[in-house]
Amino acid sequence: MGLAKARLVGTVYLMIPLPRLIPKAARLSLAVPLFLPLIVHGSDLVRISSGNWHQADGWLDGDVSTNWIQGRGAWIPTGRSVSVNASTTVSDLRLDGVVTPGANPLTITGNLSGEGTFAMPNLGTSGAGVNGLVFATGAPIEMRQNVTLADQTNGRIVISAMDAGTEVTFNGFWDGWGSNTTHNLFVSGGARFLFGPEARVNNQMRDIIRARAFFARGDGHPDNVLEFHADFNADMGTAEQPVGGLSTLRVGDMTLITNATRNLPTIHKRLSNGGPTHHGLLIFDQGEGAHWIVRSQNQEYDGGIFWSRNWTLTAETDLLSIPVNRPGEDVGFGSTTPGTTLTKRGPGTLILDDAQGYVFNSTFLVEEGAVVFLTDPFQTWPGGRMVNAGNHLSLLLTGGGQVAFEAPTGQTFHVHHITAMDAATVRVGPGRLAVSETLSTPAGTTLQVVLGVADEVLPKVTAGELAIGGVLAVEAGDGFGAGQYRLFPASADGTVAPFPAFPLRPVSRGVSTRKAAS
Fold first, then answer.
1. Cα–Cα distance between 346 and 493 in angstroms, integer?
2. CA 247, 262, 159: angle at the middle one, nearest 5?
3. Which of 53, 162, 401, 515 could crosslink 366 through cysteines, CB 3.0-4.6 Å?
4. What would the pLDDT profile of 443-496 be if each residue is shown by its tens digit?
């Protein structure tokens, strides 16, 4: 077996007598340190130069065939290509050539170095650690190697990070140009996977029109994390020269952390007619428990955000869904499966200025911060992911949660149901609010209504049942004339009675509050 590397384990001293010209009485001995390589077996890197890498068939070191000992360190030199044909565990791996993980996993438990490539064949995607490349280090590790496809038609890239303490920072090129490719990242047992500032990811097809999904799946552990460094850019190209990038991300059973707008899966690419576009998808559909944390910077997204499972958005900073108009593209914000709930947490504000649509029995649970609607939650269009959307969104506000409907005078917002609790606030801006079932603002909550121009058609708020037990705050908006006004409830038979039984005198840009009768 050839020597793989030398390891210094100490200092060796060589006694060199001085020349005899020096009187004997004055002769000295000098200790000169010589750094000699001492060979330590067991954990050294063994050279795997060709062949099948596993214990049954053995691996080749030069012309010598020997069986693999699980858990040893390995070195694949430049220009060499090795296939893994059975479950194989390696401690430290130096990869300068190419290694192809097989249907069974190649598991790394130590360090990873070198400038080589992991080439993925057509693997299955049944779960964490089942096949492909697996990290189970229990400690931080950096991956600078590239990941590509061994089969450019039917390849499957599969990488897993497993167990608490394992933290993989990827700073290579994750490249999958194949026509029938999927990208699969499994994070389990409380591990973390970080796309670093130098990382590049491409899940586009060669036509720069269509993408193959990048699946990020967990196992339900609450500490599973996929994070993007603030300097990671999902778009590798420009409007003038689109070249691919990360444009479709599907998440479940883990926490996704984005730190900048450039992290979000949206890129410059082409429409089917060859024209330019800037678009992507972020979908929460890979199991329950998806959690997205918007962190570090305010972020804007002009792609589609959809979900078919319950998920949580923690906005530590603001998130804006940008309005776009791209026929044929899946854009917008909304649910695709009945009975799902989006839970909003964090002090930041979710601003919805894009097309929206929600299927039957969809709920926003606003526990903290604010959700601002700049477009009507009741939208539907022919095609896309929300073709069956309708007036199905219910809002439940707890704690200090806030919901605001802000739009130009004359626009009407449509929701199914609103219930405010604790110290929550519902604000109806210059537009109107139509609630098909019940609007309930009990004691401790606030319903704030902004009046528009003096000739605005009232009522401002309509509901199947309007139950105001908290504070009703009326704000005089710009252009609203001075004077005394009475508030009337609208009744089904057209008759009205003053409510409350005293005049409200709006003050420009001010707030006048009266507690309504229960």
1. 44
2. 55
3. 401
4. 999 898 887 665 455 678 888 888 888 888 777 766 665 555 556 655 555 544
- Can you tell me the distance from the alpha carbon of 175 to that of 347, in angstroms, rounded to the nearest whole number? 37
3-state secondary structure of 389: coil
Quick count: other Cβ atoms within 10 Å of Cβ 76? 24
17: burial class by Cβ within 10 Å (0-12, 13-18, 19+)? exposed
Q: Which residues of the chain have pLDDT under 70?
A: 1-43, 55-64, 125-126, 178-179, 323-331, 380-389, 452-458, 477-518
For 61, the enclosing helix (H) or strand (E) is strand 59-61
Q: Residue 292: which residues within 8 A CB-CB, separation 6 or more?
A: 251, 255, 256, 257, 258, 284, 311, 312, 313, 314
d(CA 358, CA 377): 7
Q: Are 215 and 182 in contact (CB under 8 A)?
A: yes
Instruction: Tell me the pLDDT tens digit for each residue of 191-233.
Output: 999 999 999 999 988 888 888 889 999 998 999 999 999 999 9
Per-residue b/e over 190-203, b at no fewer than 16 CB within 10 Å? bbbbbbbeebbbbb
Instruction: Tell me the pTM.
Output: 0.85
Q: Please tell me the distance from the alpha carbon of residue 127 to that of residue 218, in angstroms, as a whole number.
A: 9
Give the pair of three-digit tokens for residue 287. 């199991």
Residues 166 and 326: their CA atoms lie apart, in Å, by 41
Q: Which amino acid is residue 138, in one-letter code? A: G
